[in-house]
Design goal:
The chain has 428 residues and is of the alpha+beta class. It has 4 domains: 2-91, Rossmann fold, CATH 3.40.50.20; 125-180, Dna Ligase, domain 1 (2-Layer Sandwich), CATH 3.30.1490.20; 191-312, ATP-grasp fold, B domain (D-amino Acid Aminotransferase, Chain A, domain 1, 2-Layer Sandwich); 328-427, Alpha-Beta Complex (Glycinamide Ribonucleotide Synthetase, Chain A, domain 4). It contains 13 helices and 23 strands. It has helices at 10-22, 51-60, 71-75, 78-84, 98-101, 103-113, 126-136, 159-171, 239-259, 293-296, 304-312, 391-403, 418-427, and strands at residues 2-6, 27-31, 42-44, 65-68, 89-90, 120-123, 140-144, 153-156, 182-186, 191-199, 204-206, 211-212, 215-217, 221-224, 229-232, 266-275, 278-285, 328-335, 360-364, 367-370, 373-376, 380-388, 411-412. Strands 12, 15, 18, 19, 22 and 23 form a 6-stranded antiparallel beta sheet that branches. The chain has a 5-stranded parallel beta sheet with strand order 3-2-1-4-5, sandwiched between helices. It has a 4-stranded antiparallel beta sheet with strand order 6-9-7-8, with helices on both faces. Strand 20 (367-370) and strand 21 (373-376) form a beta hairpin. Helix 6 (103-113) crosses helix 9 (239-259) and helix 7 (126-136) packs antiparallel against helix 8 (159-171). The longest helix has 21 residues, at 239-259.
C-alpha cells in the first residue's frame, strides 16, 4: 500500500507514526516532511497547498490513500481534485470544509439544525460591529470568520478590548481576508473539551476526548497560540456525555451538511463548552486538531488506517467501534522563544538519545534537518507525548522529558492538564 500524507507539522508526524504502526509494510510519502518525519517516509517536494500538482503526483505514483492534514488545502478543494482523478483521499470536500473555513457558515448551519451554540451576530462592516459590542457589553468573544491558524478567536473581558478586536480585524485587517467578516458571540462559561469523530457522512466513530491549552503561559495566561499542550482522556467527558455529543451535535450537523448538498466525509472535530445549560459548540474543525492529535492517536489501540481507508474508498462506518488503551496521554509543546510573537529559526536542537521509548514520543512540528543538525523552523517546535497508567504520571513524564530537550530560547509550559490534576487531587 502506498500512502501520502499532506502536511508536515506535529499533527502530520503523529498521523505518520500511527499509520506506520497500523501498516508496517506500507510505503509512506509526505509533503516536505519535517525533521522528525523525514526518516519515516519518502519526501515529496511539493507544498501542502499545491493542490493541482499534488493530485497529478499522486496519480502518477499510484497512491492508494492520501490523508490531508491541514485545513488550508481542504478549504482550497484538494479533496475535490483528488476525487475527480479517482484517487482515494481522506478529508472533506471544499463545500463541507466550510464548517471550519467560515465560522459564519458554521454558526448559521448550527442555528438551522438546532445544534446548541452561543448566541451570535455576523458583521462585515466596522460600524455595525462596534455598535453591537456596545449594545451587548462584555465579556464577549470576537472571531475572524475565516481561517486564522487557530488564533482568530479573541475572548474580550472588557468592552474596550472587544472594540479593539473588531477594529484590528475589520479595520486593520490583522488576519487579512480571514477577518473581513467577523462573528461576535456571547461569552460562554464552562470548560472546553475537544471531541473527534471519523465520519462517512452519515455514521460517526467517536475517538477519545481531549483538552488542549491555547495560552502561552502557565495557568492559561498570556496570548493565544496554536496550542501549548494537551491531554486525553478528559474525566468530565463521560461515556454518557460523549453519546449526547454524538446525538445532539455530530449527527444533526452531518445531516444538515448533507441536506445542504455538502456531505462531510473525514474527521469532524468539535470544540465543546460544558456549560451549566449543557453542551454547546464553540467551533468545528474539518481535520485532526493540533496538538490534540498527539494524544488522541497514541491512545488508539485499534487501526486508524482501516477507518480512514473505508471513508476514502466510499465505504460505511455503520457499527464500527474503536479500542482505546487504558491510562492517559499528555503532550507538552516545546516552543521557540518569543512565540507566538517574533522568534528566530535555525537554532540547533538537542534531544537525548535515550529520551524516546515505547511510552514516550517526540512529535516534530517546526523542525528541519540541516546537514547533520536538527534545527528549529517554526514557533511550535516539538510535542513531547507520554503514555502512562495514570494522568499524573503521564503529565509528570511529559513535562520532565520536555525539559531535557534543549535549544536556544526553548520554552514549555509546566502545567499541562492542570484542571484534570486538580480534579483528581480533589477526588483523592
Amino acid at each position: 500500500m502506498r500512502i501520502l500524507i499532506v502536511g508536515n507539522g506535529g499533527r502530520e508526524h503523529a498521523l505518520l507514526w500511527k499509520l506506520r504502526r497500523d501498516a508496517p509494510s506500507a510505503e509512506f510519502f509526505a509533503t516536505r516532511p519535517n525533521g522528525g518525519m523525514a526518516a519515516l517516509c519518502e519526501p515529496v517536494a511539493l507544498a501542502p497547498g499545491d493542490v493541482e500538482a499534488l493530485a497529478g503526483w499522486a496519480a502518477a505514483h499510484r497512491i492508494d490513500l492520501t490523508v490531508i492534514g491541514p485545513e488550508a488545502p481542504l478549504a482550497a478543494g484538494i479533496v475535490d481534485r483528488f476525487e475527480a482523478k479517482g484517487l482515494p483521499v481522506f478529508g472533506p470536500s471544499k463545500a463541507a470544509a466550510r464548517i471550519e473555513a467560515s465560522k459564519a457558515y458554521a454558526k448559521d448551519l448550527m442555528r438551522g439544525a438546532g445544534v446548541p451554540t452561543a448566541e451570535y451576530r455576523t458583521f462585515s462592516n466596522l460600524e455595525g460591529a462596534e455598535a453591537y459590542v456596545r449594545e451587548r457589553g462584555a465579556p464577549i468573544v470576537v472571531k475572524a470568520s475565516g481561517l486564522a491558524a487557530g488564533k482568530g478567536a479573541v475572548v474580550c473581558p472588557t468592552e474596550a478590548e472587544a472594540l479593539d478586536a473588531v477594529r484590528s480585524m475589520l479595520g486593520a485587517l490583522q488576519f487579512g481576508e480571514a477577518g473581513r467578516e467577523v462573528v461576535i458571540e456571547e461569552h460562554m462559561e464552562g470548560e472546553e473539551i475537544s471531541v473527534f469523530a471519523v465520519t462517512d457522512g452519515a455514521h460517526c466513530v467517536m475517538l477519545v476526548s481531549a483538552q488542549d491549552h491555547k495560552r502561552i503561559g502557565d495557568g492559561d495566561t498570556g496570548p493565544n497560540t496554536g496550542g501549548m499542550g494537551a491531554y486525553a482522556p478528559v474525566s468530565l467527558a463521560t461515556p454518557d456525555l460523549i453519546e449526547r455529543a454524538r446525538t445532539t451535535v455530530f449527527q444533526p450537523t452531518l445531516a444538515a451538511l448533507a441536506a445542504d448538498g455538502s456531505p462531510f466525509k473525514g474527521l469532524l472535530y468539535a470544540g465543546l463548552m460544558l456549560t451549566r445549560d449543557g453542551i454547546k459548540v464553540v467551533e468545528f474543525n474539518c481535520r485532526f486538531g493540533d496538538p490534540e492529535t498527539q494524544v488522541v492517536l497514541p491512545m488508539l489501540d485499534s487501526s486508524l488506517l482501516e477507518l480512514l481507508a473505508t471513508v476514502a474508498e466510499g465505504g460505511s462506518l455503520a457499527g464500527r467501534r474503536v479500542r482505546q488503551r487504558a491510562g492517559a496521554a499528555v503532550t507538552t509543546v516545546v516552543a521557540a522563544g518569543g512565540y507566538p510573537g517574533g522568534y528566530q529559526n535555525g537554532k540547533t536542537i538537542r534531544i537525548p538519545d535515550s529520551l524516546e521509548t515505547d511510552n514516550l514520543m517526540v512529535f516534530h512540528a517546526g523542525t528541519e534537518q540541516r546537514g547533520a543538525d536538527l534545527v528549529t523552523s517554526g514557533g511550535r517546535v516539538l510535542a513531547v507525548t507520554a503514555l502512562a497508567d495514570s494522568f499524573s504520571v503521564a503529565a509528570d513524564e511529559s513535562r520532565d522529558a520536555a525539559a531535557r530537550i534543549s535549544f536556544e530560547g526553548a520554552y514549555h509550559r509546566m502545567d499541562i492538564g492542570w484542571r484534570e490534576r486538580a480534579r483528581l487531587e480533589k477526588k483523592a
